[in-house]
Amino acid sequence: DAGVIQSPRHEVTEMGQEVTLRCKPISGHNSLFWYRQTMMRGLELLIYFNNNVPIDDSGMPEDRFSAKMPNASFSTLKIQPSEPRDSAVYFCASSSFRTNYGYTFGSGTRLTVV
Amino acid sequence: GNSVTQMEGPVTLSEEAFLTINCTYTATGYPSLFWYVQYPGEGLQLLLKATKADDKGSNKGFEATYRKETTSFHLEKGSVQVSDSAVYFCALSGITDKLIFGTGTRLQVFP
Question: Mean pLDDT across the stretch B68-83?
Answer without folding.
Answer: 96
